[in-house]
Design goal:
Elements lengths: L1 H31 L7 H7 L6 H19 L1 H6 L1 H25 L7 H26 L3 H15 L1 H15 L4 H24 L7
Length: 206
């Protein structure tokens, strides 16, 4: 049974890593490519705060790329210096991407519901990451782990957002504005709920 649980954890970690790499690559490709005028999602970003888009997409992508390293028990236990370095880089990336998100949020597609959803997400993202970093400096590793799990869950809302958009628009054929405004809240609420139930209780082992 223990071996089966370990195999499930490894499979879940591999799936998550693949999704993180995929969405991070999408963000970087979007940043360095040309917006597709036929894609309303692309156009909405092109019309948003242009100065903040590079910071959000690039550093948000970097943060997402670093999440598997932060979640790896092997790195945390065997290579603590690498864990600290990636944690520092992750924190810097989140702060830049989070502030950029606050600048982009007022132009979010879907009206005030989306604006409120993404603004709340950005504030929680910045706050949870700051608390995780503070707890690490205080060597309060259990609470550091709790807040880092929450931070990673919020970072991973980029994955959940794309899944919800993919299911809602192309598959269910629902209006983009409806799906986008709903996903602006659901993407991070779902992640935090999963985090609190499955991951936060593990923090005492740190």
């Amino acid at each position: 049974m223990e071996r089966l649980d370990t195999s499930r954890k490894r499979l879940t970690f591999l799936i998550y890593t693949a999704l993180a790499l995929g969405i991070a690559s999408y963000a970087l490709l979007y940043l360095f490519g040309d917006p597709k005028l036929a894609n309303r999602f692309d156009v909405s970003f092109a019309n948003a705060n242009m100065s903040a888009i590079p910071g959000h997409f690039f550093f948000g992508g970097v943060a997402l790329l670093l999440t598997p390293l932060q979640l790896s028990d092997t790195i945390r236990l065997r290579w603590r210096s690498l864990h600290r370095l990636t944690g520092l880089l992750y924190t810097i990336a989140v702060f830049i991407a989070g502030v950029s998100a606050l600048l982009i949020a007022p132009r979010a597609q879907g009206g005030m519901v989306s604006v409120a959803g993404f603004t709340t997400l950005a504030l929680l993202w910045l706050g949870s990451t700051a608390l995780a970093w503070q707890r690490a400096l205080m060597m309060d590793f259990a609470n550091h782990a709790r807040w880092m799990y929450r931070s990673v869950a919020l970072t991973s809302s980029a994955i959940t957002l794309r899944i919800l958009l993919g299911l809602g628009v192309p598959v269910a054929k629902l209006p983009l504005e409806l799906v986008y405004s709903t996903a602006s809240w659901a993407a991070w609420i779902i992640n935090l709920a999963v985090c609190e139930y499955f991951f936060v209780p593990r923090a005492d082992k740190h």
